[in-house]
Amino acid sequence: MMSKRRFPPGWTEAKFGKIATFKNGANFSASDRGVELKMLGVGDFQDRVSLKDTADLKSVHLASQPAVDNFLEAEDLVFVRSNGSKELVGRCLHIECSPRLLIYSGFCIRVRLQSEITTAQYVNLLMQRGVLKKQL
């Protein structure tokens, strides 16, 4: 018999897909010319758990200006969705700054919370501790 999960008073359980939206990152070719933008890539995660500024991020060129919903915003979460190393998949980065025209790699997926039952900072903490990574 399985026991039912117990949460502290006032807490609730929700499926991630019900409280957040997800969007894959941008793909580009090294030969693209046109719009120059800063990009958060898998290599930028390293030992970071949050992004406080974009000064050290590289720029890439895209053939055209991406749609507005392709840009990162403060309080977004970015996950590594594919990588050569299985261990790196699921790494999470909390966007703490208010980036201006910052996009993210096609190897990443952006999570934007749509509910106030949790915060990006808390979800990131659970990811860093390994609690949610196993679930995802």
What does this structure look like?
10% of the residues lie in helices and 25% in strands. The protein has a five-stranded mixed sheet. It has a three-stranded mixed sheet with strand order 4-2-7, with no helix packed on it. With 136 residues, it is mainly β.
Shape call: elongated
Return Rg in Å.
Answer: 16 Å
In what order do the strands lie side by side in the largest sheet?
1-8-5-6-3
The DSSP helix count reads: 2
- Give the CA-CA distance, first to last residue: 24 Å
Give start-end ranges of low-pLDDT stretches.
none
Give the H and E element order: HEEEEEEEEH
Portion in beta strands: 25-35%
Coarse structural class: mainly beta
Largest sheet: 5 strands, mixed
The count of strands amounts to 8
* Relative helix content: under 10%
Describe this structure in a few short sentences.
With 136 residues, the protein is mainly beta. Helix content is 10%, strand content 25%. It has helices at residues 16-19, 120-128, and strands at residues 20-24, 35-40, 50-51, 59-62, 77-80, 92-95, 102-104, 108-113.
Which helices and strands appear, and what pairs or packs with what?
Layout: H1 16-19, E1 20-24, E2 35-40, E3 50-51, E4 59-62, E5 77-80, E6 92-95, E7 102-104, E8 108-113, H2 120-128
Parallel strand pairs: 2-7, 3-6
Antiparallel strand pairs: 1-8, 2-4, 5-6, 5-8
